[in-house]
Amino acid sequence: MNEFPPDRQRGLALHLVLTSVLSIVSLLGVWLTFQTQVGLLFTVYILLFIFTAILVPILGYRAYALSRANYLLDRDTLRLVWGLRVEEIPVTDIEWVRPVAGLPVSLSLPWLRLPGSILGIIRQSEIGRVEFLASDANSLVLVATARRIYAISPKNPAAFLNAFQKTIEMGSLQSARGQSQYPSFVVARAWESSLVRFIWMVGVFLNVGLLIWVSISIPSLAQVSLGFLATGAPLEPVSGQQLILLPILSAVLFTAGGLLGLFFFRKPDQRILALAIWVSGTISALFFLLAVYFILSVPV
């Protein structure tokens, strides 16, 4: 099987830098929120934390997907791999392969893209649906099937085109079946387990209950102490509205653990790690619930 990987170096460097910067900004947002009284700046810091906390796992996954991205070709199948996205196309199902420069029209690109991460599906009236699994817009090669067109970016497009031409000339050895695997497939497989469903639902119930409890309690709170000194004495009181940080932190940790668990759940021999992470996220939510109970029980 011949391998034609995309160019990874520039994209990986950019994604790792952005992930690191956003992680630092997210932590800074949390720290500034605890240091700020309720007001406009308090809201800005919370939004900053939430925004960066959402982007970090997205960029992290895209970096992971690029690191294992590859295009593999043999006499029967063209296999496109991009993270958890896998597409196996029988060579006999491929109608044509050509560089993007060979198109009579200009190809539109997904709007949400970065160097090393040109992903998504667009619909162009002249050629139909195009799915991008590429890292570099300057080396795009189009692979057309009856169902859709795939835009890929082997590091050496000419070598890929020559190898495909030789494959067509030699012919297939046996009939192959096409297969499609999406990241959502892992979620569906995990949901089939009654144990996983129970862990997820308990975690969601605890986080939603924590948010509702804190939201109901805040209007009656003038000040709260969000922790204790080494001596056991409560910390200096802050505005009661800052208590909303606890359900937010709990939800972020639970979500991050859920995503990390899905990464391990893909492989049967690592599913025990996924379960351990998901159980830890649910227990963490329980601890946040107990923390709120103790905070509300301490007189200020």
Q: What is the beta-strand fraction?
A: 15-25%
**Fraction of helical residues:** 40-55%
Rounded radius of gyration (Å)? 25 Å
- Total tally of structural domains: 2
What is the 3D form?
elongated
Q: Which stretches are low in confidence, meaning pLDDT under 50 for 5 or more residues running?
A: none
Sequence of strands across the biggest β-sheet: 1-2-3-4-10
The helix/strand series, from N terminus to C terminus, equals EHHEEEEEEEEHEHHEEHH
- Measured between the Cα atoms of the first and last residue, the distance is 69 Å
Mean pLDDT: 87
Total strand segments: 12
SS-based class? alpha+beta
Q: Mind summarizing the main beta sheet?
A: 5 strands, antiparallel
> How many distinct helices?
7
Provide an overview of this structure.
- The protein has 2 domains: 1-181, no CATH class; 184-300, no CATH class.
- The longest helix is centred in the first third of the chain and has 28 residues, at 40-67.
- 50% of the residues lie in helices and 18% in strands.
- Helix 1 (9-35) runs antiparallel to helix 2 and helix 5 packs antiparallel against helix 6 (245-265).
- The strands form 3 sheets. Strands 1-2-3-4-10 form a 5-stranded antiparallel sheet.
- With 300 residues, it is of the alpha+beta class.
- A hairpin with a 3-residue loop joins strand 2 and strand 3.
